[in-house]
Amino acid sequence: MHSNAFFLGKGGVGKTTVSAAFALSLARSGKKVLVASLDPAHNLGDVYGVKLFDKPVPVEPNLDALEVDLAAWVERYLEESRSELKATYSYAGTMNLDSFFDIMKYSPGTEEYAVLWAIEHIHCELSAGYDVVVFDTPPTALSLRFLAMPAISNLWVAELTKLRERILQRRTSITRVNPESAVAASCVDKADDKVYGRLGSIRKRLTVLSDLFSNESYVAVVINPDHLSVSEALRIKEELEKIDIPLSGLCVNKRGVSRAAWTMDHRLSKIRSFDFDFLPGGLHEREDLRTIDTKDLVADFLAAGRKGRK
Ligand SMILES: Nc1ncnc2c1ncn2[C@@H]1O[C@H](COP(=O)(O)OP(=O)(O)O)[C@@H](O)[C@H]1O
Ligand SMILES: [Mg+2]
């Protein structure tokens, strides 16, 4: 069942515009919809003409929206890691963890995890109140990294779990040989081992997210009639294939924006595509979104959800 939609693509192609128009049309057709902007440079609120926050704000009947406060999620993630490390490792208290966490804020992966836990929060805590959740995504590079994060992290967690099992086995052997050993005082059983337990719960959380991306989401790429956005769409398609996330739709936005020749790459031709004309007058208020005709896109989303297409 698809109850989530993600619109990916190059900056400026119209991800926010198409997400907002798609969500509006779904809401006006009677579905209860939440739109969540994951872009650190939010403009979803401007598109709807409503001030948005980190929590759902009503835009109109059946339609709520929020703008994820990524900086707050980074802080939350660091705080969680800090207290977890202190609780799990007794010797952590003797290390200077604070300076480590100060730099962790800037280390690779932190932003991706923050987006991931924000999506988890929306999925686990908020989505039950809605029929559909639409995600307006950040630029391609960050989007591809957070979408790949569950698959990549699960590989790590699987290896760490094996390592932890070996450590516990060694402890058991040592304890058997020498029950007086200091090791006997430490944990030898998987069921009691905090680290082993933590790895298991991280694995569960990551599996929920990878399932969300691969099986419960309609993932579409927005392009414009130009070579650069088509190349980027191809890259997105190839990267998503590697992590088992099928691409459901292709939105060709701003058709007719220029007279420059362009061709659709044949590798994208099998994906169902939806055309949206360039509006020379631009989009200024919520009702202008109706000129982005998402009827066919909405129908495809609903049909894909019913079929439970993988
Ligand atoms: N079909 C369209 N016709 C005219 N202007 C458009 C159209 N789609 C998007 N725009 C404009 O293009 C700009 C970028 O759109 P936006 O949705 O913010 O892109 P993205 O979220 O991909 O960065 C905005 O000013 C938006 O109003
Ligand atoms: Mg945007």
What does this structure look like?
With 310 residues, the protein is α/β, with parallel strands linked by helices. Helix content is 49%, strand content 14%. The protein is built from nine helices and eight strands. It has helices at 15-28, 44-48, 70-88, 97-104, 110-126, 140-177, 194-215, 227-242, 295-307, and strands at residues 4-8, 33-37, 57-60, 63-67, 132-136, 217-223, 249-255, 272-277. The longest helix has 38 residues, at 140-177. The protein starts with a strand and ends with a helix. Bound molecules: adenosine-5'-diphosphate and magnesium ion (MG). Magnesium ion (MG) binds next to helix 1.
Question: In a few lines, what is going on in this structure?
Answer:
The protein is α/β, with parallel strands linked by helices. Helices cover 49% and strands 14% of the residues. Helix 5 (110-126) crosses helix 6 (140-177) and helix 6 (140-177) packs parallel to helix 8.
